[in-house]
Amino acid sequence: MSTTTHAPFESTYQTTNLWLKQLMAELGWDDAHRAYHALRAVLHALRDRLTVEEAVDLGAQLPMLVRGFYYEGWVPAGKPLKERKKEDFLAHIAAEFRHDPEVFPEAVAWAVFKVLESRVSAGEIRDVAHVLPSDIRTLWPRTEATHV
After folding, report:
1. Domain boundaries, position 57
2. Which domain CATH number covers 126?
Protein backbone atom coordinates (compact mmCIF):
# COMPACT_ATOMS: atom_id res chain seq x y z
CA MET A 1 0.00 0.00 0.00
CA SER A 2 1.42 3.37 -0.96
CA THR A 3 1.84 6.30 1.40
CA THR A 4 -0.63 8.34 -0.65
CA THR A 5 -3.47 6.13 0.59
CA HIS A 6 -2.57 7.12 4.12
CA ALA A 7 -2.43 10.85 3.35
CA PRO A 8 -6.13 11.56 4.07
CA PHE A 9 -5.88 9.79 7.41
CA GLU A 10 -2.66 11.57 8.38
CA SER A 11 -4.19 14.88 7.36
CA THR A 12 -7.37 14.44 9.42
CA TYR A 13 -5.32 13.20 12.38
CA GLN A 14 -3.10 16.31 12.22
CA THR A 15 -6.08 18.64 11.76
CA THR A 16 -7.94 17.06 14.67
CA ASN A 17 -4.84 17.47 16.83
CA LEU A 18 -4.78 21.18 15.93
CA TRP A 19 -8.42 21.48 17.02
CA LEU A 20 -7.65 19.71 20.30
CA LYS A 21 -4.56 21.83 20.96
CA GLN A 22 -6.57 24.98 20.37
CA LEU A 23 -9.30 23.72 22.70
CA MET A 24 -6.74 22.81 25.36
CA ALA A 25 -5.29 26.33 25.13
CA GLU A 26 -8.75 27.90 25.44
CA LEU A 27 -9.51 25.82 28.54
CA GLY A 28 -6.02 25.92 30.06
CA TRP A 29 -5.87 22.13 30.01
CA ASP A 30 -2.89 19.89 29.24
CA ASP A 31 -4.85 16.68 28.65
CA ALA A 32 -5.73 15.88 25.01
CA HIS A 33 -8.09 13.07 26.01
CA ARG A 34 -10.04 15.44 28.25
CA ALA A 35 -10.18 17.97 25.39
CA TYR A 36 -11.44 15.26 23.01
CA HIS A 37 -14.11 14.39 25.58
CA ALA A 38 -15.12 18.07 25.78
CA LEU A 39 -15.24 18.49 22.01
CA ARG A 40 -17.33 15.34 21.62
CA ALA A 41 -19.75 16.26 24.43
CA VAL A 42 -20.41 19.76 23.11
CA LEU A 43 -20.69 18.64 19.49
CA HIS A 44 -23.27 16.01 20.47
CA ALA A 45 -25.26 18.50 22.54
CA LEU A 46 -25.12 21.00 19.67
CA ARG A 47 -25.94 18.47 16.95
CA ASP A 48 -29.05 17.30 18.77
CA ARG A 49 -30.41 20.85 18.96
CA LEU A 50 -29.99 21.55 15.25
CA THR A 51 -32.38 20.66 12.48
CA VAL A 52 -31.30 17.54 10.62
CA GLU A 53 -30.35 19.65 7.61
CA GLU A 54 -28.27 22.07 9.68
CA ALA A 55 -26.59 19.22 11.58
CA VAL A 56 -25.52 17.73 8.25
CA ASP A 57 -24.34 21.11 6.92
CA LEU A 58 -22.17 21.60 10.01
CA GLY A 59 -20.88 18.03 9.82
CA ALA A 60 -19.75 18.61 6.24
CA GLN A 61 -17.28 21.26 7.45
CA LEU A 62 -15.70 19.15 10.18
CA PRO A 63 -12.45 17.23 9.64
CA MET A 64 -13.10 13.59 8.78
CA LEU A 65 -12.07 12.29 12.22
CA VAL A 66 -14.12 14.90 14.10
CA ARG A 67 -17.04 14.22 11.76
CA GLY A 68 -16.89 10.56 12.76
CA PHE A 69 -17.39 11.20 16.46
CA TYR A 70 -19.83 14.05 15.72
CA TYR A 71 -22.16 11.54 14.04
CA GLU A 72 -21.44 8.72 16.50
CA GLY A 73 -24.72 7.49 17.99
CA TRP A 74 -26.81 10.09 16.15
CA VAL A 75 -30.48 9.31 15.63
CA PRO A 76 -31.96 12.07 13.43
CA ALA A 77 -35.57 11.17 14.27
CA GLY A 78 -37.06 13.60 16.75
CA LYS A 79 -34.46 16.29 16.16
CA PRO A 80 -34.00 18.99 17.07
CA LEU A 81 -34.63 18.33 20.74
CA LYS A 82 -37.23 20.67 22.14
CA GLU A 83 -35.01 21.76 25.03
CA ARG A 84 -34.67 25.52 24.73
CA LYS A 85 -32.86 26.48 27.95
CA LYS A 86 -29.15 26.97 28.39
CA GLU A 87 -29.29 24.89 31.59
CA ASP A 88 -30.64 21.88 29.66
CA PHE A 89 -27.84 22.19 27.11
CA LEU A 90 -25.21 22.47 29.84
CA ALA A 91 -26.70 19.51 31.72
CA HIS A 92 -25.80 17.26 28.78
CA ILE A 93 -22.19 18.43 28.95
CA ALA A 94 -22.11 18.11 32.74
CA ALA A 95 -23.41 14.54 32.47
CA GLU A 96 -20.44 13.64 30.27
CA PHE A 97 -18.10 15.01 32.96
CA ARG A 98 -19.95 13.69 36.00
CA HIS A 99 -16.73 12.09 37.28
CA ASP A 100 -14.72 15.27 36.74
CA PRO A 101 -16.25 17.88 39.05
CA GLU A 102 -13.59 20.47 38.20
CA VAL A 103 -15.08 20.91 34.72
CA PHE A 104 -17.27 23.98 34.26
CA PRO A 105 -19.73 23.07 31.44
CA GLU A 106 -20.35 26.67 30.41
CA ALA A 107 -16.62 27.28 29.93
CA VAL A 108 -16.34 24.02 27.95
CA ALA A 109 -19.24 25.00 25.67
CA TRP A 110 -17.80 28.49 25.13
CA ALA A 111 -14.33 27.11 24.31
CA VAL A 112 -15.66 24.53 21.83
CA PHE A 113 -17.81 27.18 20.17
CA LYS A 114 -14.75 29.43 19.91
CA VAL A 115 -12.82 26.64 18.19
CA LEU A 116 -15.73 26.07 15.82
CA GLU A 117 -15.87 29.77 15.00
CA SER A 118 -12.21 29.76 14.04
CA ARG A 119 -12.37 26.55 12.00
CA VAL A 120 -15.82 26.58 10.32
CA SER A 121 -17.00 29.15 7.79
CA ALA A 122 -18.66 32.29 9.15
CA GLY A 123 -21.73 31.55 7.03
CA GLU A 124 -22.16 28.13 8.59
CA ILE A 125 -21.66 29.52 12.10
CA ARG A 126 -24.33 32.12 11.32
CA ASP A 127 -26.69 29.37 10.14
CA VAL A 128 -26.05 27.25 13.25
CA ALA A 129 -26.57 30.20 15.57
CA HIS A 130 -29.75 31.15 13.76
CA VAL A 131 -31.45 27.80 14.44
CA LEU A 132 -30.38 27.60 18.09
CA PRO A 133 -32.72 28.88 20.78
CA SER A 134 -31.62 32.33 21.92
CA ASP A 135 -30.86 31.13 25.46
CA ILE A 136 -28.38 28.55 24.14
CA ARG A 137 -26.97 31.06 21.65
CA THR A 138 -25.75 33.14 24.61
CA LEU A 139 -23.07 30.49 25.18
CA TRP A 140 -21.34 31.44 21.90
CA PRO A 141 -18.47 33.91 21.96
CA ARG A 142 -19.81 37.32 20.94
CA THR A 143 -18.94 37.68 17.28
CA GLU A 144 -20.58 39.11 14.22
CA ALA A 145 -21.47 35.63 12.96
CA THR A 146 -23.55 34.78 16.04
CA HIS A 147 -25.53 38.01 16.25
CA VAL A 148 -28.77 36.99 14.58
Report:
1. 3-146
2. 1.10.490.110
